[in-house]
Design goal:
This protein has 12 helices and 5 strands. Helix 7 runs antiparallel to helix 8. The chain folds into 2 domains: 119 residues, 3-Layer(aba) Sandwich (abc type-2 transporter like fold), CATH 3.40.1710; 172 residues, no CATH class. It is an alpha/beta fold.
C-alpha cells in the first residue's frame, strides 16, 4: 500500500523517482548543478608555466657547474728565480690562464699562505722539489695539484736526461751514464679529517642548510602572526637549528672541525639570516615576498655558492658574486673555521650579519607600516 509520504526508490543503474514522478538527481554532481571546468587556455598555460619553472630550476643548478672551467687558481711558487721563471712558463704553456701565480720567499712562506687561504697550493723548487696541497680545499683542487706534481716530475726527469746526453756527446761524461731520478714530493699541508676523508660532507650539507633556512622562514611567515612574535620565532629557530645541525655535522658525522660553539654560531646565524630575510620580504610584499626570498636564496645564492669547487672556476665574476649571498658565505666560513683558522673570516661573517639585519629591518618596517595603516583607518 502506498501513501502520500512515499519516497523515491533508488534503482541500480537507474534514477530514483518520487511518488508523483518527479525526477530525482542520482549523483551529488547533478544535485549541486553542472560542473564548471577549467578553461582549456588556463589549463594549458599552467602546464607550460610549470614546465618553464622546472627549466629555470634546472638551469640555475646546472649552469654554474657545466660552464665552470679551471682558471685563475691561486698558487704560490718558491725557489731560485731562474727555476721559478721556468716553471711559470711551463704552467702557462700547459694550461694558459689556469693559475694565478704568486712568488713566495720560501717553503714556510708557502705553508703560511696556504693556511691563510691566500693560495690553494704551492710549488717549492730547489734540490728537492715539492708540491704543497691542502685537501681541505676540495677534491678538484687536490686533483689539479697532483697533476701539476706529476707534470713537473716528468719535465724534470726529461731535462736531467737531456743534460746527461749533452754531457756524453761533449765528452764530459762516459757513455752509459744514467741521469738521476728526480721525485717531486707531494705534501698535504691541510688534510681533511679522517671522518670526512673525501671532503664530500661540507658540500653535501650546504643545500639542506639553505633549504632548511628557507622553509623555516616560509613556515614562520604563514603560521605566526605578529611581527615581534615572528622575530622571536626566527631567533629561536636560528639558535635551535644552529645547535642541532652542528651537533649532527660535527658531533655525529665529524664533517665540521674546530670549536663546536663557534661552528654552531655560524650555522645558526646562516639559518637565521635566510629565515629572517624570507619573513622580512613577506612582511613588506606579502606572499610575493616569500617568492623573492626563495628565488634569491635557492635559485641564485645556492648555485653560486661554489660549495664543491673553487669560486674562481665559475664563469666571469659570478664566483665572487656568490660570496655575497648566505649560501656562499656560510660554506666558506664553515670551511675556514674547520680547517683554516688562520684565514681572514671577517667578510663571510659580515655577509651573514648583513642579510640578517636586512631581514629584521624588513620585519620591523612591515610592522610599523601596518600599524600606521591601522591608525589611519581608525
Amino acid at each position: 500500500m502506498s501513501t502520500s509520504t512515499d519516497r523515491g526508490v533508488d534503482r541500480p543503474g537507474g534514477e530514483g523517482r518520487a511518488a508523483h514522478g518527479e525526477h530525482v538527481a542520482s549523483s551529488p554532481e547533478q544535485a549541486a548543478g553542472p560542473v564548471v571546468h577549467t578553461p582549456w587556455a588556463r589549463a594549458l598555460a599552467l602546464a607550460v608555466g610549470a614546465a618553464a619553472i622546472v627549466v629555470v630550476i634546472l638551469l640555475a643548478f646546472l649552469w654554474p657547474t657545466v660552464t665552470s672551467t679551471v682558471k685563475d687558481l691561486p698558487i704560490g711558487i718558491a725557489g731560485p728565480s731562474a727555476q721559478v721563471s721556468a716553471v711559470e712558463k711551463q704552467l702557462d704553456k700547459a694550461a694558459s690562464g689556469a693559475f694565478a701565480v704568486t712568488t713566495l720567499s720560501d717553503r714556510q712562506a708557502a705553508v703560511d699562505a696556504i693556511q691563510k687561504r691566500d693560495v690553494y697550493g704551492a710549488i717549492v723548487l730547489g734540490d728537492s722539489p715539492e708540491v704543497l696541497t691542502a685537501s681541505a680545499n676540495g677534491a678538484a683542487v687536490t686533483q689539479i695539484l697532483n697533476q701539476v706534481a706529476g707534470n713537473l716530475q716528468t719535465a724534470a726527469n726529461a731535462q736531467a736526461q737531456a743534460a746527461v746526453q749533452q754531457a756524453i756527446a761533449a765528452g764530459h761524461a762516459p757513455a752509459g751514464t744514467k741521469a738521476p731520478t728526480i721525485t717531486v714530493k707531494v705534501t698535504d699541508v691541510v688534510p681533511l679529517a679522517s671522518t670526512d676523508s673525501r671532503g664530500l660532507g661540507l658540500a653535501a650539507s650546504s643545500f639542506p642548510l639553505v633549504l632548511g633556512g628557507m622553509l623555516g622562514g616560509v613556515l614562520i611567515s604563514l603560521l605566526v602572526a605578529g611581527s615581534w612574535r615572528r622575530l622571536g620565532a626566527v631567533a629561536l629557530y636560528g639558535v635551535a637549528g644552529g645547535l642541532a645541525v652542528t651537533g649532527i655535522l660535527q658531533g655525529w658525522f665529524g664533517i665540521l672541525q674546530g670549536d663546536y660553539w663557534v661552528n654552531a654560531l655560524a650555522v645558526g646565524l646562516a639559518m637565521f639570516a635566510i629565515a629572517a630575510f624570507v619573513v622580512g620580504m613577506n612582511a613588506l610584499f606579502g606572499r610575493v615576498g616569500i617568492a623573492i626570498g626563495a628565488v634569491l636564496t635557492v635559485l641564485v645564492g645556492n648555485p653560486l655558492s661554489a660549495a664543491a669547487q673553487p669560486l674562481q672556476f665559475l664563469v666571469g665574476p659570478w664566483g665572487a658574486v656568490g660570496q655575497w649571498f648566505v649560501p656562499g658565505a656560510s660554506v666558506t666560513l664553515l670551511r675556514d673555521l674547520s680547517y683554516f683558522p688562520s684565514a681572514d673570516a671577517l667578510f663571510p661573517w659580515l655577509v651573514l650579519l648583513g642579510w640578517a639585519v636586512v631581514g629584521v629591518i624588513g620585519m620591523l618596517a612591515g610592522h610599523f607600516r601596518d600599524q600606521e595603516v591601522t591608525e589611519a583607518a581608525a
